[in-house]
Amino acid sequence: MTMPKAKGRIVHVEGQSYEASVSAGPIDAEHNVSLRISIRALFGHQGFCVVRGLTNRLFWHDYPNIEEMRAASISVGPRELCGLIALARSAGWDPVTSKSTFELAATRETVRELRRE
């Protein structure tokens, strides 16, 4: 039997491994794209955390106002993923013992703050 290929990015926080994936949802009336970040611990009960509330901008809806789009958009890379994991852990997520999905509410400003740290 072969192991399924990982669909997310593996990140390490405080010596623990997590798999994180980012998916885009529908576009709202203000041309924001909702983001859903799913994080799975690769240890313990392999608990899940879902980050909700994030929105981003869509390049083609903001064209030709690219500078405004860049000012309003966020980038979710490894640094931000690690920061969101640490934030979820400090908010009460315990992937070692938790068997239910933990939900973390975040905004664009939350991600921008993580980028500054």
Explain what you see.
There is one protein chain. The protein has 117 residues and is of the alpha+beta class. The chain has 4 helices and 5 strands. The chain has a 5-stranded mixed sheet. α3 crosses α4. The termini are far apart. The model has no long low-confidence stretch (mean pLDDT 86).
For the CA atoms, what is the radius of gyration?
15 Å
Q: Walk across the major sheet and give the strand order.
A: 1-2-3-4-5
The chain-level mean pLDDT equals 86
Helix content: 25-40%
Number of separate structural domains: 1
Distance between the termini: 43 Å
- SS-based class: alpha+beta
In short:
This protein is of the alpha+beta class and 117 residues long.
For the structure shown, list the relevant keywords.
single chain, about 120 residues, five-stranded mixed β-sheet, 5 strands, about 30% helix, about 35% strand, elongated
Question: Can you lay out the helices and strands and say which pair or pack?
Answer:
Blueprint: E1 9-13, E2 16-27, E3 32-41, E4 48-57, H1 59-62, H2 66-72, H3 78-90, E5 102-105, H4 108-116
